[in-house]
Amino acid sequence: MKKAAKLSGGKMSREDKPARKPHGGIPAASFVEDVDAYLNKEQHASAEHALRELDDMLSKYKFMDASLQQRKAKLKSQIPEFKNALSLLQTLKAKKEASEDIQTTFLLSDDVYAKARVPPTENVCLWLGANVMLEYSLEDAVELLTNNLTSSHAILKEIVSDMEFLRDQITTTEVNMARVHNWNVKKVQAAKSNESEN
Length: 198
Prior knowledge:
198 residues, alpha+beta, two-stranded antiparallel ribbon, 14% strand, Prefoldin_subunit_alpha, tubulin binding
């Protein structure tokens, strides 16, 4: 029986997520030790054909790298937002326990702020994204944001690991391209010297 997804701020809980592929599903690049064997094993029509395939793979790796860079930047911008929201929730909880109002200013529009007095509150509304806002108790909101912050740190760590792995694959592919190119140059030079001898 399939386990139902537990919603927590629009996200599945960690135990419900499918197992993660190693390195985010990034294919590993094999080092080409013997170019002759590589070209014969892979049944490439020519060294140029092998170079085109390696170049295609390099382009895919670079696209993956750009995608990971974007995800990393987005997470790095979300983490401070989670921390600020948690700090605000802690302030709201402290003021609620002390039965004190909060004096604050809030943004009305660009460069226009208004002063406000916020009475002690039991609930807060959180934007979950995609124009969705839900009301939570202070405790539930703290739990949700703490879970999201923890999850964001874990995902950021995975992304950094994937990026390191990806850099290794890019380097390996570039070295393979250089080796195949050099092999082809030597083969062409050998063919020319054989023709000149005959």
